[in-house]
Amino acid sequence: MTDTVDAVVIGAGFGGLAAALALAEGGLTVRLHERLKYPGGCASTFERQGYRFEAGATLFSGFADDQLFGRWIKRYGLDVTVDWIDPLVEFRTPERSLVVGRDRAAFVESLCAAPGAPAAGIRAFFAEQRRVADVLWEILDEPELLPPFNVAALLAHAKRIPRYLPLLRHIGRPVRADLERHGIADHRPLVEYLDGLCQITVQCGVDEAESPFALGTIDYYYRGTGHVRGGIGSLAWGLLKGLEVAGGEACMADGVTGLRREGDAWVVSSRGGDVRARHVVANMLPHDVARLLGDGDDGLAALRRSLAKTARRVDDGWGACMLYLATRPPAEADDQAHHLELVADPTAPYLEGNHVFCSISGAHDGARAPDGQRTITVSTHVPMKSLATQDDEGVAASIAAIQERMRATIATLAPEWWAGVTHELTASPRTFERFTGRHQGLVGGIPRRAGWLPYLRLLETPRARGLHLVGDSVFPGQSTLAVALGGVRTAARILH
Ligand SMILES: Cc1cc2nc3c(=O)[nH]c(=O)nc-3n(C[C@H](O)[C@H](O)[C@H](O)COP(=O)(O)OP(=O)(O)OC[C@H]3O[C@@H](n4cnc5c(N)ncnc54)[C@H](O)[C@@H]3O)c2cc1C
Hints:
Blueprint: E1 3-10, H1 14-25, E2 30-33, E3 45-48, E4 51-54, H2 68-75, E5 82-83, E6 89-92, E7 97-100, H3 104-112, H4 119-141, H5 151-164, H6 175-181, H7 188-201, H8 211-217, E8 227-228, H9 233-245, E9 249-251, E10 256-262, E11 265-270, E12 273-282, H10 286-293, H11 301-315, E13 318-327, E14 338-343, E15 355-360, E16 374-383, H12 384-388, H13 392-413, H14 415-418, E17 421-427, H15 429-436, H16 453-458, E18 463-464, E19 467-469, H17 480-495
Parallel strand pairs: 1-2, 1-12, 2-9, 6-14, 12-19
Antiparallel strand pairs: 3-4, 5-8, 6-7, 10-11, 11-12, 13-16, 13-17, 14-15, 15-16, 18-19
Helix pairs in contact: 1-9, 1-17, 3-4, 4-8, 6-8, 10-11
This protein binds flavin-adenine dinucleotide (FAD).
């Protein structure tokens, strides 16, 4: 006999975990299916050969007591330790090193103090950036203000209209326009730093990045941001525990293989059998949802068209190449975790091993590596369109070349950590595809390039009656916090 629940969630990435937990908290019977043995997807911690590595994401926001993750950790008494590391990140190029500490004002002043720095313009830019970030982060910190809007949310937004007005001048323009307005667009140290930060957050550099999104995420390091001891997997497992406490059920290592509409319900198939549900939340790329649906004369043609449209925008994005390293720390290393953002040649695109983000576990993270070693997760962006035109051999050669460039960048710009490397694993878009099931290993969501159109598209989430998409390809998009907020809002839509 087919089981029946109120809602099935497909995928235990942070989008799916959040949706499942919020639905269970709302009193629905929820079953969460995950194809892997462990939760978290692109933000998980995996174990191999005695080492524990972050699979992709490494630095997380949303942990302050009044933010989403902070609230859940408290509510469920989760065994998650956030280290409020300082510095948060060190940005290195062959010419300079910028240390991004927890004190935002001190960081801005350190930029102003550099020889020849246009200090007045830098201060004015960051003051404006802060005002925009405050408005946008306030919305992220109160998930009720995100769509779907109820009357209370609309009233709250109406009251804030005067605060939103200054955003208008930024809409549809790249962040470079803001730098030009403040006369600092040629100040290389700042532009290089912002190029890197925009690439890892809104997925494109300052010439392209849509200003309000970029100005908001430039504050990423100052919004309840920290390093999760033991790996982000501890939070993902914690949210599964929360789901259980809230009455939900998780089926791990039980991937969904088919999805079909039957009358008023959806039937979800997996190795464990079929389950019927009025609601399905798919924490997947649109391509992968379309694959689950297959073809058929089932009245879902509009849904398939909408999935294909969103899929084309995701195709415009990135894959990731990874190195997972274990290293003996240098003698001068302190005990805390470190995040190094390295750019070998700041005049070349911040991709394909020229720009890498290295996250080094702390000494307190004893479980991550034996014998006092530290683990390092290293990532770089890979343009998927350039891989798509190559045959298998060409792809393998390109990936090998990118990984070699990643090694060279670390060896040159972080020699103290590179010298002690004892162990290496690698990953490519194919690895992401194999593990997370993401079409072609596309990660990171839709780049937020400047223009008005993205705003209209933001709210164009593919959906059909009872079927909802969450994750980094739909609003509000990238980062663990953003996809989790999207999951919570999707749950709210279902519950109300
Ligand atoms: C290299 C890299 C570095 C990043 N760095 C950061 C960072 O430092 N900080 C940050 O906040 N964000 C970072 N991000 C972004 C962040 O990781 C993502 O935005 C977020 O984790 C995406 O979550 P998601 O829920 O959308 O999807 P996913 O994490 O992909 O989760 C989808 C889940 O669904 C499962 N699944 C797929 N198909 C099926 C199926 N048929 N049946 C059952 N389960 C299925 C997958 O196994 C997976 O667990 C990074 C991303 C990458 C790739």
